[in-house]
Fold this sequence. Notes:
Elements: H1 3-24, H2 29-32, E1 41-46, E2 49-52, E3 55-58, E4 62-69, E5 75-81, E6 88-90, E7 93-95, E8 100-108, E9 114-120, E10 126-135, E11 138-146, E12 151-156
Amino acid sequence: MSFGKRQLVITLLIHLMCYLPVCSQKKTDRQVAGLNGLVKSVRVESSFFIYLFGELKETNSNRQSFTAYDRKGNITTHFSYKGYDELIIRDRSIVKKDDLEKKGTYSYDSDGRLNDVVWVNSAGSLLEKDLYVYEQDKLVAMVRYSSSGAIEKKQTVVKPHSSL
């Protein structure tokens, strides 16, 4: 190999070694959601118009969800709210009832891997718990337990066969 080709190969290898760590980095929940920067939380609200007593009126905003992130970009808490069926018309005005449907609290291990998500209802009673199982650094299973402790769902991650 001539000096010019060797220098080109070495340069390409150096660039490849610098590029690989960037490609192999795990995306945070915040990045997966398409958020840039240190976003602390996202609240999703919506409103719609109804024809009421001969007038077109916009309803108050209706909360749909709220998601909080830690400094690393991991979800720490997610709230889901009931939808439009909770709107009430009273005295020619619209009163909304934003009841919490469920809340998920996320916990992570020291390596930043999701350990579990605990889901509770508006009264704080346990609905279900999702546990995440890892082998080395790879997620291999998610197990969902009901409030009674019974397994509701077990989802395994299929590993592709390696050809030797």
